[in-house]
Amino acid sequence: MSAWTFIAHTEVGSGGAASISFMSVGDIPSSYTDLVLMYSVKPTDTTIEGIYISFNGSTSNFSARYLEGNGTSASSGTSIPRYIGAFQGTTADTFSNGQLYIPNYRSSVAKSWSVDNVTEANQTAAYQDIIAGLWNDTAAITSITLTLNGKNLAQYSSATLYGITKGSSGGVVVS
User: Fold this and answer.
1) Strand order in the sheet with 19-22
2) What is the pLDDT of residues 144-165, one digit of tens each?
3) Is residue 170 part of a domain?
4) Is residue 143 part of a domain?
Protein backbone atom coordinates (compact mmCIF):
# COMPACT_ATOMS: atom_id res chain seq x y z
CA MET A 1 0.00 0.00 0.00
CA SER A 2 1.00 3.61 -0.51
CA ALA A 3 0.83 6.23 2.21
CA TRP A 4 0.34 9.99 2.20
CA THR A 5 2.59 11.73 4.72
CA PHE A 6 2.30 15.35 5.82
CA ILE A 7 5.52 17.26 5.02
CA ALA A 8 4.83 20.98 5.59
CA HIS A 9 2.12 23.65 5.77
CA THR A 10 2.42 27.37 5.00
CA GLU A 11 -0.17 30.09 5.67
CA VAL A 12 0.09 33.71 4.56
CA GLY A 13 0.08 36.21 7.41
CA SER A 14 -1.43 39.68 7.67
CA GLY A 15 -0.54 42.04 4.84
CA GLY A 16 -0.36 39.24 2.27
CA ALA A 17 2.65 37.77 0.47
CA ALA A 18 4.01 37.60 -3.07
CA SER A 19 4.33 33.80 -2.98
CA ILE A 20 4.07 30.58 -1.03
CA SER A 21 7.23 28.50 -1.16
CA PHE A 22 8.49 25.14 -0.01
CA MET A 23 12.20 25.65 -0.43
CA SER A 24 13.87 25.43 2.97
CA VAL A 25 16.17 22.53 3.73
CA GLY A 26 13.95 19.59 4.55
CA ASP A 27 10.77 21.06 3.01
CA ILE A 28 10.94 18.48 0.23
CA PRO A 29 12.75 15.37 1.48
CA SER A 30 13.97 12.82 -1.07
CA SER A 31 12.29 9.93 0.74
CA TYR A 32 9.00 9.87 -1.18
CA THR A 33 7.88 8.66 -4.60
CA ASP A 34 5.39 11.45 -5.46
CA LEU A 35 4.33 14.85 -4.10
CA VAL A 36 0.89 16.40 -3.62
CA LEU A 37 0.43 20.11 -2.93
CA MET A 38 -3.04 21.15 -1.75
CA TYR A 39 -3.64 24.90 -1.87
CA SER A 40 -6.31 27.43 -0.95
CA VAL A 41 -5.56 30.94 -2.24
CA LYS A 42 -7.10 34.37 -2.72
CA PRO A 43 -5.68 37.62 -4.13
CA THR A 44 -5.51 40.77 -2.03
CA ASP A 45 -7.65 42.63 -4.58
CA THR A 46 -10.87 41.77 -6.46
CA THR A 47 -9.41 40.63 -9.77
CA ILE A 48 -9.46 37.26 -11.52
CA GLU A 49 -5.88 36.07 -11.79
CA GLY A 50 -3.84 32.99 -12.56
CA ILE A 51 -1.84 30.84 -10.17
CA TYR A 52 1.63 29.83 -11.39
CA ILE A 53 4.23 27.30 -10.24
CA SER A 54 7.97 27.13 -10.41
CA PHE A 55 10.21 24.21 -9.53
CA ASN A 56 13.72 24.76 -8.12
CA GLY A 57 13.32 28.47 -8.93
CA SER A 58 12.95 27.69 -12.64
CA THR A 59 10.29 29.37 -14.76
CA SER A 60 11.41 27.79 -18.05
CA ASN A 61 10.86 24.45 -19.82
CA PHE A 62 7.19 24.20 -18.77
CA SER A 63 4.40 23.09 -21.10
CA ALA A 64 0.80 22.06 -20.46
CA ARG A 65 -2.66 21.30 -21.85
CA TYR A 66 -5.86 22.38 -20.12
CA LEU A 67 -9.59 21.88 -19.96
CA GLU A 68 -11.47 24.81 -18.38
CA GLY A 69 -15.07 25.69 -17.68
CA ASN A 70 -16.16 29.14 -16.52
CA GLY A 71 -19.84 28.76 -15.65
CA THR A 72 -21.12 29.49 -19.16
CA SER A 73 -18.72 27.75 -21.57
CA ALA A 74 -15.82 25.33 -21.78
CA SER A 75 -12.48 25.54 -23.55
CA SER A 76 -9.35 23.47 -24.01
CA GLY A 77 -5.93 23.89 -25.52
CA THR A 78 -2.30 24.56 -24.82
CA SER A 79 -1.96 26.21 -21.43
CA ILE A 80 0.14 29.19 -20.48
CA PRO A 81 3.40 27.67 -19.19
CA ARG A 82 3.42 27.18 -15.39
CA TYR A 83 -0.31 28.11 -15.15
CA ILE A 84 -2.13 25.86 -12.67
CA GLY A 85 -5.52 27.56 -12.48
CA ALA A 86 -7.59 30.66 -11.98
CA PHE A 87 -8.54 32.32 -8.73
CA GLN A 88 -10.55 35.39 -7.98
CA GLY A 89 -11.06 37.88 -5.23
CA THR A 90 -14.47 39.09 -6.34
CA THR A 91 -16.35 37.35 -3.53
CA ALA A 92 -15.28 38.45 -0.05
CA ASP A 93 -13.59 35.84 2.15
CA THR A 94 -13.80 33.15 -0.54
CA PHE A 95 -10.74 31.17 -1.61
CA SER A 96 -9.95 29.15 -4.72
CA ASN A 97 -8.74 25.62 -4.10
CA GLY A 98 -6.66 23.09 -5.95
CA GLN A 99 -4.38 20.09 -5.93
CA LEU A 100 -1.04 19.79 -7.72
CA TYR A 101 0.18 16.20 -8.17
CA ILE A 102 3.83 15.50 -9.11
CA PRO A 103 4.72 11.85 -9.71
CA ASN A 104 8.37 10.70 -9.64
CA TYR A 105 9.67 14.11 -8.52
CA ARG A 106 13.17 12.71 -7.89
CA SER A 107 13.61 11.03 -11.28
CA SER A 108 16.33 12.05 -13.72
CA VAL A 109 13.88 12.56 -16.60
CA ALA A 110 11.30 15.27 -17.40
CA LYS A 111 8.67 15.67 -14.64
CA SER A 112 4.97 15.39 -15.38
CA TRP A 113 2.43 17.15 -13.16
CA SER A 114 -1.34 17.54 -13.03
CA VAL A 115 -3.75 20.00 -11.44
CA ASP A 116 -7.40 20.06 -10.46
CA ASN A 117 -8.38 23.64 -9.51
CA VAL A 118 -11.67 25.44 -8.84
CA THR A 119 -12.56 29.02 -8.00
CA GLU A 120 -15.28 29.69 -5.50
CA ALA A 121 -17.47 32.69 -6.27
CA ASN A 122 -21.02 33.88 -5.91
CA GLN A 123 -21.28 34.86 -9.58
CA THR A 124 -21.56 33.37 -13.06
CA ALA A 125 -17.83 33.25 -13.89
CA ALA A 126 -16.47 30.58 -11.57
CA TYR A 127 -13.62 28.61 -13.12
CA GLN A 128 -12.77 24.91 -13.04
CA ASP A 129 -9.44 23.81 -14.49
CA ILE A 130 -7.92 20.42 -15.17
CA ILE A 131 -4.33 20.72 -16.39
CA ALA A 132 -1.70 18.18 -17.43
CA GLY A 133 1.82 19.57 -17.60
CA LEU A 134 5.46 18.77 -18.10
CA TRP A 135 8.61 20.34 -16.68
CA ASN A 136 11.29 19.34 -19.17
CA ASP A 137 14.19 19.22 -16.72
CA THR A 138 16.19 16.28 -15.36
CA ALA A 139 16.85 17.75 -11.89
CA ALA A 140 15.02 16.32 -8.88
CA ILE A 141 12.40 18.77 -7.59
CA THR A 142 13.74 20.28 -4.36
CA SER A 143 11.54 23.40 -4.14
CA ILE A 144 8.05 24.47 -5.23
CA THR A 145 6.77 28.06 -5.35
CA LEU A 146 3.23 29.34 -6.00
CA THR A 147 2.92 32.91 -7.30
CA LEU A 148 0.31 35.15 -8.84
CA ASN A 149 0.53 37.32 -11.93
CA GLY A 150 2.06 40.35 -10.21
CA LYS A 151 -0.46 40.26 -7.35
CA ASN A 152 -0.18 39.34 -3.69
CA LEU A 153 -1.78 36.40 -1.95
CA ALA A 154 -4.23 37.47 0.75
CA GLN A 155 -3.92 36.64 4.42
CA TYR A 156 -4.94 33.03 5.21
CA SER A 157 -3.99 31.76 1.74
CA SER A 158 -2.30 28.45 2.43
CA ALA A 159 -0.65 25.37 0.98
CA THR A 160 0.05 21.93 2.43
CA LEU A 161 2.64 19.56 0.99
CA TYR A 162 2.34 15.77 1.25
CA GLY A 163 4.73 13.00 0.25
CA ILE A 164 3.45 9.75 -1.19
CA THR A 165 5.42 6.58 -0.62
CA LYS A 166 5.14 3.81 -3.19
CA GLY A 167 3.59 0.64 -1.84
CA SER A 168 3.63 -2.97 -2.93
CA SER A 169 -0.14 -3.54 -3.32
CA GLY A 170 -1.01 -0.42 -5.34
CA GLY A 171 -3.52 0.78 -2.73
CA VAL A 172 -3.40 4.09 -0.89
CA VAL A 173 -3.56 4.56 2.86
CA VAL A 174 -3.87 8.08 4.26
CA SER A 175 -1.95 8.56 7.50
Assistant:
1) 19-22, 144-148, 48-55, 83-88
2) 999 887 788 889 999 999 999 8
3) no
4) yes
Q: Give me the pLDDT at residue 173, please.
A: 52
- Looking at residue 46, which CATH number applies to its domain? 2.60.120
DSSP string, 98-152: EEEEETTTT-SSPEEEEEEEE---SSS---EEEEEEEE---SPP--EEEEESS-P
Question: Could you count the other beta carbons within 10 Å of the beta carbon of residue 19?
Answer: 16
**pTM for the whole thing?**
0.88
Range of the domain at 130: 2-164
Asked if the structure places residue 169 within a domain, the reply is no
**Distances from the Cα of 74 to the Cαs of 48, 69, 97, 151, in angstroms?**
17, 4, 19, 26
